[in-house]
Amino acid sequence: MKKEDIKVCIMRVGGTNCDAETKRAFEDLGVKAEVVHLNQIIKGKNLLNYDALVFPGGFSFGDYVRAGAIWAKGIVAKLGRDLKKFVEQEKPVLGICNGFQVLVEAGLLPGLDGTSKYPQAALATNEPIGYRCIWVHLKLENSGRCIFTQKIPKEKVLRVPIAHAEGRFMFLKEKESEYLQRLYDSDQLVFRYCNEKGEYADGRYPVNPNGAFHDIAGICSPDGKIFGLMPHPERAYYGWQLHDWTRRTRVPEYGDGRLIFESMTEYLTKKF
Amino acid sequence: MSLYVKRDVPFELYETRLASASNEKLLQVSKELGLGLNLEEMKAIQKYFSVRKRNPTDVELQTVGQTWSEHCYHKTFKGDVVTEKGIIKSLFKTYIAKVTKELNPDWCLSVFEDNAGIIDFDKGFAVAAKVETHNHPSAIEPFGGAATGVGGVIRDILGVWAEPIACTDVLGFGPLTYEHDKLPVGVKHPKYIFRGVVAGIGCYGNNMGIPTVNGAIYFDESYVGNVVVYCGCIGILPKNKFLKNAKPSDIILLVGGKTGRDGIHGVTFASAELTEKSEEISRSAVQIANPIEEEKLKRAIIEVRDRGLGSAITDLGGGGLSSAVGETAKRSGCGAHVELEKVPLKHLGMAPWEIYVSESQERMLLLVPEKNLRDVLEIFANEDVEATPIGRFTKDEMLKISYHGYKVVEIEIEFLFNPPKAQRTAKWKPPSYEEPSFPEPEGLTRDVLEVLSSPNVASKESVIRTYDHEVKGNTALKPLQGRYAGPSDAAVLKPLADSWKGLVISCGMNPNYGRIDPYWMAASSIDEAVRNNTAVGGRRIALLDNFTWGNPEKPDRMSALVRACQACYQFAKGLETPFISGKDSLYNESPLGPVTPTLLITAVGVIPDVRKTVSMDVKQAGNLIYIVGQTYPELGGSEYYRMKGFLGKAVPKVRVSQAGITMKSIVEAIDLDIVEACHDLSDGGLAVAISEMAFTGDYGIDLYLKSVPRLKGMQRNDFILFSESNSRFLVEVKEKRRRDFEASMEHVAFSVVGRLKREKRLLVHGIDDKTIVDVSLAELRNAWKNTFGG
Questions:
Q1: For every one of its 272 residues, what pLDDT tens digit does chain A have, with 9 covering 90 and above?
Q2: Phi, psi at residue B591, to the nearest 5°?
Q3: I need a surface site. Which of B68, B231, B358, B743 has the fewest CB within 10 A?
Q4: How far apart are the C-alpha atoms of B365 and B598, rounded to whole Å?
Q5: Angle formed by the axes of helices B142-158 and B291-306, to 10°?
């Protein structure tokens, strides 16, 4: 399909707050993006009329219980069937920050054996504890499965900001090594926290800003079409959003975050 | 005979026998009902109802009490002040509003009228700005007090149909190391208050998805008993969507959260001194915050705005429905009829007066023409927000309130907004401070490190990182600069997708000078706010004034307030920076005494292209460092003196015509692309500014004090290094642009004071060329960062 025919659904509920900048990123690429309240879909707007689905950042329903948990249950209960079809049609699903938490809570990620009834992982409270808004470095770990990172050059270290209180990716202790191996086996690992030279954080704060297991910042589904990450690529989309652009002789036009939106758009134009 | 008589109605309603009440009884009523009114005001009420030959109901008394409170009516600023030199009729008109009136810039669209000041921006959009104080509630319940402070100021912005795009917060606490044993009963420890306030601010802004982009934290002994919490919000609105045309028969729609017993008498509480009993008496005055409710509310309001379905809007803050209904009706030239039983409640059994004055959060009032009601209700339903018609505007300019069919209020709106004029007395007692005398230290390395690590100067990164300063993706210059997280002078936002024009937000506050002279304190705050804005490239600056003061009924506090207001006129006028909005918090007194007179100035400027923004970190070895502006021996109230255990007397002054030229020259140089980095000199003076620039940009420097332009005869190295004289900047310039820069600075004092180098050390050479500071950038950075951790 042509780029201008793509229709992205950016879903929101009460407490979602990164929808506008996410929409702006798609529109800059010439893609149509619509912010749609979950209530509108429940009332009859058809999810399947969209080509891609994005869960943006925010504090859905105040993030009570666990971050993303209430929104996730709402989707599974109200849109379960449509969402299943959506995924089966290999349409991309992206979750940023709170959206990543939703995808994990809904069992879509890591989805080791397809969508799971119970979460297989969690995004737990940060270690050290507390909300943190800071720029981090990410290393691309994916060997080609993830459709959201195709445009990122191998070995590139990306710079993007995080802003969350619950981003510590973890598995059940007793499943840790098994699940990690499975992530590697099916090429589901996408981003790990590293320093500016690309050396892994190895759990060390603040290079790993939240204590995530294995420095995991983002993972995808086994088929690479569902992707969730804690950092905010939409906040590193333009050059003037970078935290040190004033040090450059010329302001760069774009930041590293754009590569993710570009990759997703390219997948859609080629696939459909 | 009892003063209060229960009316024969099936709910709780009392009337008060005012007609024959003695003065003593009148005051008793004011106290027992928590009205916070003085005798003269009570007498005015007595007269009003005597003429009408009936007793007021409790709902009526409470309505008047709320409307006439200092918090809602600003009696002190609107009243007469008797001074040694005659009577001042309204501080507000004489000094604050006069600046704007005389400057009369065409870009000030609405000042002092609405919930927020509104200025022109770009492409048909205007910017709204407001800063609020939430000191009293934060002293009782730090988390809730601060969070609802943020929530309240965000609603002020929504209250002019603007979409909130940024928050600011400036805080004042007692020293975190304050001895527990010295705390009076009922005063909470500064550390407890600090943690609660910071968490409350972060919680609200982050949850609502509004970036907190600018702020400051000060520590002062006088803040132990009187915490200072300023919450600001900036919004943006299409100019043609600013609707204010409510008419009789329009429907009064209450939207947002339910109404409960939280936040009863908040405004009365805010207009009284804090005592050890405040906790038990006033706990119910602190509201409970729910940012997600307000996020949804915001979405619905913006949609109502965009579709042009409302005819007026205001927020429910201090005074609750009572203030919102009365003020909107007054502004629209209408009366109002409210049916109180329709208000959705959190719990059963609330008396009508409680419903009417409750300050429960996340509520707003909309006026909606009947034909639009269905659409508006649908918008709110889609966002899962409650919206309830509770009455209508009427033609008769009367406030009428009923409860289940019984009339409980019937007052002329005119009466409500004409309280007896307050009269205050001002008497100035000049302080008798002395300049300290102590020998100049041999080397100053240790002093530089110590000043950098002092709580007022040290990095607040550990606090700032807990606020999301990037959500919405519009923050072009962030509060923390680059990888070493240096302190930016101002924040720059790029609010419109199709315009490069930026909004520049900065602040200035100098409580320590306030102890010596509130006049120069105010002057310095204005200069600092404007200077910070200028340093990144801001111009066309609008100001917001926020006073935190002691009890204005005491002549010395009042006189200090008069002096500060005089400075506001003098210096804002001189710098051509109009005031567009303001707010005062008076009665900040605790068992430990009054708060140090504290004026926060918030500056909102613009920059034509955000890509021209200049940051404070040095950029390249070999570049020159200039100092711009004259240095004077002004160390009264400085960080250096404080560190040495002195207060001093020579507080920094502002030479206003020079200051104006300096600011203009800097902006000119920035527009010509000559400026690589720019940083203002404030707390800690030259020593702190040069250190911050160097360790943020990671280049060393050799600094020569003998080149610093200064008052003749100023020979002490420590004074040159630590003086806090106003209107000064440090500027990094490439060698090849030397001439261009110097041409721009033609009319101001300036000089090259050093050159950047690869070696990561700061060397300061004294006026006799001896090295007086020799320290690595890492040591400077650590000193600055370790106080609060990073």
A1: 999 999 999 999 999 999 999 999 999 999 999 999 999 999 989 999 999 999 999 999 999 889 999 999 999 999 999 999 999 999 999 999 999 999 999 999 999 999 999 999 999 999 999 999 999 999 999 999 999 999 999 889 999 999 999 999 999 999 999 999 999 999 999 999 999 999 999 999 999 999 999 999 999 999 999 999 999 999 999 999 999 999 998 899 999 999 999 999 999 999 98
A2: -55, -15
A3: B743
A4: 33
A5: 0
Among B198, B297, B468, most A C-beta atoms within 10 A, so best to mutate, is B468
Taking CB atoms and an 8 Å cut-off, how many pairs form between chains A and B? 103
| Token reading at B367 | 């006026």
> What ranges in B209-319 are assigned the alpha helix state H?
266-270, 278-282, 291-306
3-class secondary structure, B507: strand
Min CA distance, A271 vs chain B (Å)? Answer: 30
Question: Amino acid identity of B97?
Answer: A
Provide the domain limits for residue A203: 3-271
Q: State the catalytic residues of B.
A: 71, 134
Q: What is the domain-level CATH number for residue A210?
A: 3.40.50.880
Beta-carbon separation of A17 and B295 below 8 A? yes
Judging contacts by C-beta atoms under 8 Å, the chain B residues touching residue A133 are: 465-470
Report d(CA A188, CA A203) in Å as an integer.
20
Residues from chain B contacting residue A17 (CB–CB below 8 Å) = 208-209, 295, 471-472
Distance of CA B389 to the CA centre of its chain: 33
Tell me the residue type at A18: C
Instruction: Tell me the pLDDT tens digit for each residue of B582-637.
Output: 999 999 999 899 999 999 999 999 999 999 999 999 999 999 999 999 999 999 99
Spatial distance between the Cα atoms of B691 and B501, rounded to a whole number of angstroms? 31
Task: For residue B604, count other CB atoms closer than 10 A to its CB.
Answer: 30
Distance, in Å, from the CA atom of A96 to the CA atom of A68, rounded to the nearest integer, reads: 11
What residues of chain A lie within 8 A of the CB of B295, using their CB? 14-15, 17, 59
Token pair in block for residue B591: 């068992």
The rounded distance, in Å, linking the Cα atoms of B678 and B667 is 11
| Chain A residue with the nearest C-alpha to that of B381 | A39
How distant is the Cα of B452 from the closest Cα of chain A, in angstroms? Answer: 23
Question: Which residues of B make CB contacts under 8 Å with A?
Answer: 202, 206-209, 290-292, 295-296, 382-384, 465-478, 480-483, 494, 497, 610-611, 613-615, 617, 619, 697
B739-758: burial string, b at 16+ Cβ within 10 Å, e else: eebbebbeebbbebbbbbbe
Class for the domain spanning B614-790: alpha beta
Could you report the predicted ipTM of this complex, rounded to two decimals? Answer: 0.96
DSSP 8-state assignment for residue B96: I
Please state whether beta strands B335-339 and B398-403 pair in parallel, antiparallel, or not at all (unpaired).
parallel
Residues B459 and B784 sit within 8 Å (Cβ to Cβ):
yes
CA distance B588 to B595: 6
DSSP reduced 3-state for B277: coil
Residue A176: alpha-carbon gap to chain centroid: 21
- Round to whole Å and give the CA distance between B135 and A16: 30
pLDDT at B1 over 80: no
Active site residue A234: yes
Query: Hey, how many other C-beta atoms are within 10 angstroms of the C-beta on B653?
Result: 19
Other CB atoms within a 10 A radius of the CB of residue B669 amount to 26
Domains held by chain A: number: 1
Tens of pLDDT, residue by residue over B64-98, are: 998 998 878 888 999 999 999 999 999 999 999 99
Contact: B472, A58; criterion CB under 8 Å: no
- Residue bearing tokens 């102590």: B438
Tokens of B104: 């009369």
Domain regions of chain B by residue span: 4-56, 614-790
Contacts with B494 from chain A: Cβ below 8 Å? 240
